[in-house]
Design a protein that fits this description.
alpha+beta; four-stranded antiparallel β-sheet; 19 strands; globular
């Protein structure tokens, strides 16, 4: 039987959808099964944790696998598979001690598994978005000291190196794994069934090192339409609806059937401007767009007043965020003069958008209207949510984007370093790269954060990122679910379904 993501019509047509899917996927469904609804990625989905791109990928990977470390809400680190770690005085040699943990097939998690996982992620032929975290590792010199100890040797100092171990896509897999059709991990749930673009069913792993989950089964249900996710929750077809728009959250705030988990101001909302081709190869037009957008209006309308305005920088409120840079405000006269100076009064371009984020369509429309005020003819171009982030890596000149919680240095290296794994903007600056290298090699944390602030001043001016706001990350859950914790995406407590309980 083939499976397809739910549509709004399909969810509302009857109550048999989930039961039919469960029956054809597992043969028998547990009454203690938690059903969680996410926007999904279509037929190209994979359970390979190194290739995560959507939040549903990351949540499934968190259920099946584990990482050496995890992010707290402020991006500080907590140990997971790594019990402890330390570097030498140079920041080039890292000694890691593993805790006693096992994979779902009973094998112990060992230093060889860690080395295999990181070597695989660093392989450019895999094209993992997590590769950036491990490009400095010299795998020829790195070694397993014992089954539970290893040494990672870097080609250059990096006192921020452990932050990469906690990032999405840095999960540990058994050495030698090449097939992810029925993956074996060390996470709290073990694999039962999965169809790309369809549901995934996992069963609790009784021998998990951090304790067995409190639900017997976990089912990921693909529901791309936000209204359909909410209706499925309210009708009892699912227990959890991920990623809701600010307006939806406002409407559900007083609904006694659900509880809202709202991580306020945790997700950057931005517009990527590609600097390697017209029109944004011209710095005047980049500055015109940065000056022409009304961030306050975007927060009021696209985020229903429930977010915070941005200053074209990532990580507001996080460790390392550059608070000393003056807030950029709308200046229509300046923007118009820059457009005229560039001879671009008739310029037309599209803003790439999608419903992959509930606020994207409204933001694209509003930005288009605001930029018409400065003489630019801008129109939204809607792409499919299942392929949006893949397509916008190479297509279009302006694309809406969002990024959840990550360490500031990690984001800067991904998005702005020359050759960075997610440098869609095409930004390049030897001065910026040198500052990031100096920061990584600086053991003193206040000095390191000062260098990161200097790097942020450069990208604030020329980086090609219009970070207009920070949205509240909203999840709705049935009142019969307990044990879930409000947390920013990418952090330890987000999508922590092993601690959920059903009444």
């Amino acid at each position: 039987m083939s499976r397809h993501p739910f549509t709004r019509r399909g969810l509302l047509a009857g109550s048999l959808g989930l039961a039919a899917l469960a029956a054809c996927g597992t043969g028998q469904s547990s009454s203690n099964r938690l059903r969680v609804a996410f926007s999904a990625g279509g037929s190209k989905e994979t359970l390979d944790p190194a290739l995560v791109s959507l939040f549903v990928d990351q949540a499934r990977a968190k259920a099946l696998f584990d990482t050496l470390a995890a992010y707290n809400a402020d991006t500080s680190l907590r140990p997971r598979l790594a019990e402890s770690w330390e570097s030498d005085a140079t920041g080039k040699r890292w000694h890691i001690r593993l805790r006693q943990a096992s994979f779902h097939d009973g094998r112990a998690v060992t230093a060889d598994d860690v080395l295999y996982s990181f070597r695989r992620i660093a392989d450019p032929t895999l094209a993992s978005s997590s590769r950036q975290y491990f490009v400095k590792v010299d795998f020829g010199l790195s070694r397993a000291i014992s089954p539970t100890e290893l040494e990672l040797v870097l080609t250059a100092p990096d006192f921020e190196f452990p932050a990469g171990w906690a990032a999405p896509g840095a999960e540990i897999i058994p050495a030698g794994t090449t097939n992810f059709g029925a993956p074996v991990g060390s996470g709290p749930f073990r694999f039962v069934s999965f169809t790309p673009g369809g549901p995934a069913v996992f069963r609790k792993w009784e021998s998990h090192w951090d304790g067995a989950p409190t639900v017997d089964e976990l089912e990921f249900v693909p529901v791309n339409d936000e209204t359909a996710r909410v209706n499925a929750l309210l009708s009892g077809q699912v227990d959890y609806a991920h990623d809701l728009a600010a307006g939806t959250a406002a409407r559900l705030a007083n609904d006694n059937r659900v509880a809202l988990l709202e991580a306020k101001g945790t997700t950057m909302q931005g517009l990527i401007l590609r600097l390697t081709q017209p029109p944004f190869a011209d710095p005047r037009l980049l500055r015109a767009v940065l000056s022409g957008v009304d961030r306050d209006a975007l927060n009021r309308v696209a985020l229903a007043g429930r977010g915070e305005i941005g200053n074209d920088l990532f990580g507001k409120g996080l460790r390392g965020y550059a608070t000393g840079i003056p807030q950029r405000t709308r200046d229509v006269d300046l923007a118009r003069s820059l457009v005229r100076e560039a001879g671009a009064e008739t310029l037309a371009f599209a803003i790439e958008t999608s419903d992959v984020d509930p606020g994207f369509p409204t933001a694209a429309t509003l930005i288009s209207q605001q930029l018409k005020d400065i003489g630019l003819n801008v129109t939204p171009n809607t792409r499919a949510s299942s392929t949006y982030f893949t397509e916008t890596k190479t297509k279009g000149v302006a694309a809406l984007t969002r990024t959840a919680t990550l360490p500031v240095a990690t984001f800067l290296n991904q998005r702005f370093r020359t050759g960075g794994s997610n440098n869609i903007n095409g930004f390049t600056s030897p001065e910026f790269d040198a500052l990031m290298d100096r920061a990584a090699a600086t053991a003193d944390e206040p000095a390191r954060l000062g260098l990161l602030a200097d790097a942020q001043r450069i990208v604030h001016d020329r980086g090609g990122l219009l970070a207009w706001g920070f949205s509240t990350w909203t999840i709705a859950a049935s009142k019969r679910v307990s044990g879930l914790v409000t947390a920013p995406p990418n952090t330890f407590d987000w999508a922590r379904f092993d601690r959920a309980r059903l009444s």
